[in-house]
Amino acid sequence: MSLSLSLIGSKLSGKSGILELMDDLGKAMSQGGMLMLGGGNPASVPAMEKIWRTRMHEILQSGRDFEVMLGNYDTPQGRPKFISALVQLFNSQYGWNITEKNIAITNGSQSGFLFLFNMLAGEFANGMKKKILVPICPEYIGYADQGLCENLFLAGKPLIKEIAKHEFHYTVDFANLPVDESIAAIALSRPTNPTGNVMSDEEIEKLSKIAKDNKIFLCIDNAYGAPFPNAIFGKASQPWGDHIIHSFSLSKIGLPGARTGIIIANEEIAKAISSINAITSLANTNVAQEIVAPLISSGEIIELTKSAITPFYHERLLQAQEWCREFFPDNLPYSFHTCGGAFFLWLWCKDLPITSKELYERLKQRKTIVVPGNYFFFGMQEPWKHTDECIRMNYSQSPEVVKEGLKIVAEEVASAYGASALTC
């Protein structure tokens, strides 16, 4: 029998960047011998792995906590003691004034943004169509195909600031930011996946004011941000307001398999997310909430991220940057985006003779997996050559893998430019 899909069925089951990324990662892992510089999987941080093993042991030894964790549904909003611990943490850490009614748990932040984007934007009963504004592209590949209607995203073209000979930085082009009545919300990741850009407090304040003045929402994805996993190599404040929606995740602290996302927003948004949970999955997974709740309640999670996670990834970054300087010929026209956080190196090869997708295929032939940059430039209003000149690389894997992978990337980039570029 032939399969006939609805428009939404076709949309969700069709070809997408995130599907290709995850499919390639899965195949590469099964084949073995691949150098995995693709994907966003966190590293194995020994100090955090020890904590998770200890917590699981405590749960197993504590009455019926293990049986309750696996055998009972939680509320669609999430586990009450976990939510109460989050309220205490954020209010004490940032001076917020949230309550339990401001929080909803999701089965991963990816699911949370699928709910948020399609709840806030799309087609309305009055015939109005609204969009999500991405203030800077490139942005997270996982957002690109989440719209249940077509053309859900509108992206702002960034300004490019040269920091040094082989370093650059994207900033928001506020003068040309397309904000009008068709925009329902502004959305960004901080630190940004794929570039490692930590949007400045000043930029966040400006975006917050734009959102508030236009009576729209500002959605901030903190999957790599503060207070956990705190993969930020500098300072970044966390604003709060009725028009701000924060998303957090337990994946990057070392629990990606437990799929737990956190939405903090005004009470109406949090209630709506809980209602969607009930329809789509009845309730959320309990495991990560049970494991992490005591660490959040005591505040230990803050100290753990500062002592274990932040320095771990910063050390990996510095080592990767040193290898890049060693392997990439100095006279090639390449630049790396300033990395203020997250797990990625974002490489721009100016006037690259081949596309980033072709470079990706060449690297795959040499058993090195990266992510071609074009997938991250969704919602752009006009073609831009820059989108085919970038790739994303994950530096969080073992040093041996990262070193060899970067060496191969440098060789293939040099080969793509050809001998003329090396002698210019």
Question: How would you describe this protein?
Answer:
This protein is of the alpha/beta class. The protein folds into two domains: about 5-50 and about 305-415, Aspartate Aminotransferase, domain 1, CATH 3.90.1150.10; about 65-300, 3-Layer(aba) Sandwich (Aspartate Aminotransferase, domain 2), CATH 3.40.640.10. Helix content is about 40%, strand content about 15%. The protein is built from 13 helices and 16 strands. It has helices spanning about 5-15, 15-30, 45-60, 65-70, 80-95, 110-120, 200-215, 265-280, 285-300, 300-325, 355-365, 400-415, 420-424; strands at about 35, 105, 120-125, 130-135, 155, 160-165, 165-170, 185-190, 215-220, 245-250, 260-265, 335, 345-350, 370, 370, 390-395. The strands form three sheets. Strands 2, 3, 4, 5, 8, 9, 10 and 11 form an eight-stranded mixed beta sheet that branches. It has a six-stranded mixed beta sheet with strand order 6-7-12-13-16-15, covered by helices on one side. Strands 1-14 form a two-stranded parallel ribbon. A hairpin with a 5-residue loop joins strand 3 (about 120-125) and strand 4 (about 130-135). Helix 5 packs parallel to helix 9 (about 285-300) and helix 10 (about 300-325) runs parallel beside helix 12 (about 400-415). The relative contact order is 0.16. Mean pLDDT is about 95; it is low at about 420-424.
